[in-house]
């Protein structure tokens, strides 16, 4: 398979801890495909995966983040156009009092969920697996 048949995107599991130490996860709802997932987008030009994730999160949520590339999960799946999408998801912790603003062109909703709610809300099993691994990673950091 040539590189022309692969679309690469990166993003992050964005989370915070509230005053009680409870984890909250930020999910975005895609406007065109109507599914809940993580903020992410296509790599442009010579960007690194980390640079793409930071840019896309800023575009979709208006958050300035630093991504932890020590956590990196990949989801690969076929697209309707016959190409293969390779999505790499990192992790990013933000302050609990940050203000998000959705990107009107691509995002129909943006919301914080606790872990169990996020698992239910995520639209695809591969994203649920990434969240499970991210949660384990976060818990191991304590």
Question: Mind sketching the topology for me?
Answer:
Elements: E1 6-17, E2 23-30, E3 36-37, E4 39-42, H1 49-61, E5 68-78, E6 84-93, E7 107-113, H2 115-121, H3 125-141
Parallel strand pairs: 1-6
Antiparallel strand pairs: 1-2, 1-4, 2-3, 2-7, 5-6
Helix pairs in contact: 2-3
Q: How far apart, in Å, are the first and last alpha carbons?
A: 42 Å
Helix content: 25-40%
Order of helices and strands: EEEEHEEEHH
The fourth-level CATH homologous superfamily is Nucleoside Triphosphate Pyrophosphohydrolase
Q: What is the domain total for the residues? A: 1
CATH fold annotation: Nucleoside Triphosphate Pyrophosphohydrolase
> What summary fits the major beta sheet?
7 strands, mixed
How many separate helices? 3
* SS-derived structural category: alpha+beta
- If you compute it from the alpha carbons, what radius of gyration comes out, rounded to the nearest whole angstrom? 14 Å
Characterise this structure.
- The chain is 26% helix and 38% strand.
- By secondary structure, the chain is an alpha+beta fold.
- It has one domain: Alpha-Beta Complex (Nucleoside Triphosphate Pyrophosphohydrolase).
- Strands 1, 2, 3, 4, 5, 6 and 7 form a 7-stranded mixed sheet that branches.
- Strand 5 (68-78) and strand 6 form a beta hairpin.
- The longest helix has 17 residues, at 125-141.
Write a concise keyword list for the protein shown above.
single chain, 142 residues, alpha+beta, Nucleoside Triphosphate Pyrophosphohydrolase, seven-stranded mixed β-sheet, 7 strands, 26% helix, 38% strand, globular
